[in-house]
Amino acid sequence: MAVLIDGKKISTQIKDECKEKAAALKVAGTEVTLAVIQVGNDPASSVYVRNKKKACEYIGIRSLAYELPEETTETELLDLIKELNGRSDVHGILVQLPVPKHIDADKVILTIAPEKDVDGFHPMNVGALCTGEKGFVSCTPAGIIQLLKRSGVEIDGKECVVIGRSNIVGKPMSLLLLRENATVTIAHSHTAHLKEVAKRADILIAAVGKPKMINHEYIKQGAVVIDVGIHRNAENKLCGDVDFDDVEPICSAITPVPGGVGPMTIAMLMHNCLESVSLQK
Question: How confident is residue 93, by pLDDT bands cut at 50, 70 and 90?
Fold first, then answer.
């Protein structure tokens, strides 16, 4: 019977720590402020934005909401970001992705000042992660490291396999695991003998983007399994990249979907907002 890694519980611990820091900063004269920009009304994006606002409210971070119409031009969006970059009362800037097709997401990421890029997507922050310097770390991978550490999972010296090589999860995840002294393999859709590679892992991170793709054939007995995926199945129920019922009997610990990695992403975003104050100083 695998230990269930409870992302809701651990994310609440982190948010409560953030709450204390936000209160202390407020007493010292700084009201931490996050500007959230959403272009268009993609339903999934609206849910994420609403959750981010709720988290800000809980922690005591002021949030500025910019809900822009679908037809907002790229220039208008970039001008708003530049204006927020220049405001000393704004500590973090987040543009909810995806943006409409007529807007270049890479340009948007590049326009956000690196010291206000609380999502950790700016190339300067990615570069800082590579070289071990200070900067923001992408929220989902940072949250996974916290899930492992706060659940008592030893990372140092372990064989870790990350399935997925996206800029948002796979690549930064592998760098963070390296930072923790793990031996890391990045696997992906072109990896030969993927099941055999995955089966070497003491810690397997599944960020494939395919519902229930990872079954028991990918898992070594006693491995720790972290499921980054989130999908809706035929019955409209949430599920992950991992076939939970098939994998759970053979692993030592596993994250559920929902309630695993998801809540950690917002908790780490809040953590980054508080970090932004010292980075800007």
Answer: very high
* All residues at 6 or more sequence positions from 281 whose CB lies less than 8 Å from its CB, including other chains: none
Strands (E), the chain: 3-4, 33-39, 62-68, 92-95, 159-163, 183-187, 203-206, 224-227, 231-232, 238-239, 253-254
Catalytic residue among 21, 38, 117, 119: 119
Q: Which of 52, 116, 158, 171 is an active site residue?
A: 52
**Residues 193 and 156 reside in one and the same domain:** yes
Rounded to whole angstroms, the Cα distance separating 92 from 182 reads 31
In 3-state terms, the chain is what percent helix, strand and coil (to 5)?
A: 45, 15, 40
Question: Hunting for tokens 């272009």 — which residue is that?
Answer: 39
Long-range contacts for 109-116 (Cβ within 8 Å, ≥24 apart)? Answer: 111/78, 111/81, 111/82, 111/85, 112/81, 112/85, 113/85, 115/276, 115/279, 115/280, 116/84, 116/85, 116/90, 116/91, 116/92, 116/276, 116/280
pLDDT per residue as tens digits for the range 83-92: 999 999 999 9
Query: Which of residues 55 and 281 earns the better pLDDT score?
Result: 55
SS3 state at 137 = coil
Assess whether 96 carries a catalytic annotation.
yes
Q: Which domain holds residue 93?
A: 29-114
Segment 121-158, tens digit of pLDDT: 999 999 999 998 999 999 999 999 999 999 999 999 99
Nearest of 276, 191, 226 to residue 10 by alpha carbon: 226
Domain count, the chain: 2
* Structural domain contains residue 128: no
21, 96, 117, 220: which is the annotated catalytic residue?
Answer: 96
Is 119 annotated in the active site?
A: yes
